[in-house]
Design goal:
Elements: H1 4-7, H2 10-23, E1 28-31, H3 35-43, H4 60-70, E2 80-85, E3 91-97, H5 104-112, E4 116-117, H6 120-123, H7 148-156, E5 164-168, H8 178-189, E6 193-198, H9 218-230, E7 236-241, H10 243-257, E8 266-270, H11 276-283, H12 286-306, H13 308-311, H14 328-339, H15 345-352, E9 365-370, H16 383-387, E10 392-397
Parallel strand pairs: 5-6, 5-7, 7-8, 8-9, 9-10
Antiparallel strand pairs: 1-10, 2-3, 2-4, 3-6
Amino acid sequence: MIPSYLLSGIPGIAYYLYYKTYCRKIPEIYAGDGSFIDLLRQKCPILSEEYNPIPMFHHSTVMTVLASFARHRGLTFPFVREAYVCADGGEVILDWWTGKRTTTAAKLLASVAEVNLAEESAFHSESGLVTAEKITEPSFMNDEDLSEEVAKTALLNLPAAEAVVLILPGLTGDSTQNYVRGLVQASDSLGLIAVVMNYRGVSGSLKTPRSYCGADTSDVAEVVNHVKDLYPNLPLIAVGVSLGGILLTNYLAKCGKENADSRVLGGFTVSTPWNIAASCKVLEEPLNYYIFNRHLAQNLCAAANRHSEMLSKVPGLDLEQLKNVRTIKDFDHNFTAKMFGYESADDYYKSATPHDKVHQIKTRLLAINAADDMFSPYDAIPKEAAKENPNVCIMVREVFWC
């Protein structure tokens, strides 16, 4: 008979063997041969290093929930908030972070170019948004009037920046999200300027009867051009998370298809749902539905109802149907598809899904996914397509991470 003190150690030994065998693995790399993958292997040793997830917390669901509570807590950034007006009159909120360079030059632009400067105490208001009433006027201005040209010149010549990082958040995310602040922190630590693109209606009011979706990259194109016009001499790096990854991938693919200059030096995506229909199917499984799908659908409906007065102008859109929404796909069928002229959610997903556009990408793109990510199923990742494109590298880790 085996002693009890030995029996008590068997579960621990079994878990150790499981963790070492199935969790600690070198990432899978899918990329076309060429200078891009050679550069990544030289500069990014993480591509060939064994990944060690947190023991006992490595399951994708656990990691996602844990990250929402514990990741990048306490980060504060007094952004310079710019209300960028798109060609159709719609408004996209851009939150700029220039690190220690957010001094005279940024304040000049804030004062002269009518950009709200958010003091740290004002930025972290109860709603997470900055209001004009909470903005403190720069005290150094005195009575001297400075031209917009002087302000923009000062901003364009901020010292020590190596590049600008454009961050595209997830489905209902904005610059207040922990993961976005973590990306801003990483950019700041590298001496880079960071700007977060808050989609239409997510921060601030909705100015036109049109929101955003994964298939419509027009706002991304406008923001990219705006940022490059402000900083023509700095390279632009674009980072997309989840929906932001869809938008960035679709934007780069569209530019490649049209042989147009993306004006982006390189792209980086995290947890991109490569096949949206497949992602929705996984998210509708019971556990994922109750933990993620239902919550995201409720947030989408709340955002739509918040702008009900403006959205009531959309032909054929009945906001009363949102009362019956239970899943993301329900929302896309009753709201997104109707707003952007699709017959159904499935029709919209065929247009928005990026997995069949990888061959069109001509701008270098590094994508990171996890094999057990419920938002991007392993079988839906375009591994073979990536291997045929020298501008694309997809790194797949065995388990999710935060």
